[in-house]
Structures are given as structure tokens and as C-alpha cells.
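Sequence, please.
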């Protein structure tokens, strides 16, 4: 079982999300990255992303992922769909 609050291993660095400019991200929002992975936002957040294809660093804690992206107000807590 993963340790609570521990965001271990870097899953990916320099990955880009598919075009998001002008999108509002919040709980339940679905999006894809490049290379292709599908994510669903499962953490409570509401933010407007102004970057066209923001670069993200992805950290993992069990089945939960933390996406730290350019132009994000705060990291996104997500799960993968594939």
C-alpha cells in the first residue's frame, strides 16, 4: 500500500497535454496526453488553463497521479482510464 501523502517515482517528465488553451479543468474532467494516456481529474479543483499544450511532470502514488503543469494554478490529482 502506498504511503499517504508520498508522491514517489516520477512517471513522466516533459510530457505534453493535448490542446487545453481556454479550458476550465475541474472534478471529472477527462483529457489526454501525448504520448497517449487518458486521465480523469478526481481531486477537487477548478482552474482555467491558458497554455495551448502545457508540459507536465507526472508523479504517482498507487493508482493516483499528480500532474504538475505549466500554467496550472495547482497540481491536478487524476487517475488513468487506460
Amino acid at each position: 500500500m502506498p504511503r499517504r501523502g508520498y508522491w514517489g517515482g516520477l512517471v513522466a517528465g516533459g510530457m505534453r497535454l493535448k490542446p487545453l488553451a481556454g479550458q476550465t479543468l475541474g472534478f471529472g474532467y477527462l483529457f489526454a496526453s501525448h504520448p497517449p494516456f487518458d486521465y480523469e481529474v478526481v481531486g477537487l479543483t477548478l482552474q482555467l488553463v491558458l497554455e495551448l499544450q502545457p508540459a507536465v511532470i507526472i508523479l504517482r502514488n498507487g493508482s493516483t497521479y499528480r500532474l504538475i503543469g505549466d500554467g496550472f494554478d495547482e497540481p491536478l490529482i487524476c487517475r488513468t482510464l487506460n
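The beta strands are 8-17, 23-26, 30-34, 38-41, 46-49, 55-61, 64-69, 76-80.
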